[in-house]
Amino acid sequence: MDAAEFMGLEPTADSHRWRLPVTKQITSGIGALFGGVGLGAAVEAMERHTGRPLVWATAQYLSFTRPPSILDVEVVDAAAGHKTSQVRATGHVGDLEILTVNAAMGKRDFPGEGQWAEMPDVPPPGDCPSRVMEPRMEGRLASRWEMRIARGRGPEEFPGPPGDGRAALWARIPGLEVSSTSLSILGDMVPFGISQALGMRAGGNSLDNTIRVVQLVPTDWMLIDVRIHAVLHGFGHGLAHIWAQDGTLLATASQSAMVRAFREEPPRE
Hints:
Blueprint: H1 3-7, E1 10-11, E2 17-22, H2 35-50, E3 54-61, E4 69-80, E5 84-93, E6 96-106, E7 146-151, E8 166-172, H3 180-186, H4 190-198, E9 202-206, E10 208-213, E11 222-232, E12 235-244, E13 249-261
Helix pairs in contact: 2-3
């Protein structure tokens, strides 16, 4: 299965335009389109439109959209060079703008290279407990992936003392290969670390989501290494390094989010 098929992203007769039917399968726990899927749909459309791999993309989330709706994704070439393209994409439902994505695409030859970030020392996926899926997630995006807590606490351990701002999840989406799009989806995990840092059942609605792709290598599991920098004035800020099992840095993601305590009632349909 490729990433477009996983999300349900569909091309149109216009190479600049794509459509994403918003179904329950790509929604978050609040019943709205999962932010990482919105970014991933734009990334997939931009890579296919330019024929160039993603370097970085940043999404600004402006509004929610819930099933049944159609997210129309329009790609605009802002600037195109010999090796690099600067691209913009917007997602609308009718006249309502849902998200705006800016990105750079391309690949260049350069003699110097290296990796200086270090993967944290955590147990392998098989030795980590599964992340508990709450009943409200049934049939939603979270039910389509596997996650194991490599560093952190389960929901039954909250409330508790504040953490050190570090958390980590092993994650994989069965049947979906590593790509810029799948990394965009899984990179939307910074809010997971907010509850771990605060020691309470809380998360966040993403204001933005940035993905920076380093390199793509095959791997069964990916480690999402979350680092919360601060929570203040109702907003949380942090980043995540995404690692292959062999220690290769695949990508980094960063976000700011409006912090909210979890509600126990089911999401609005």
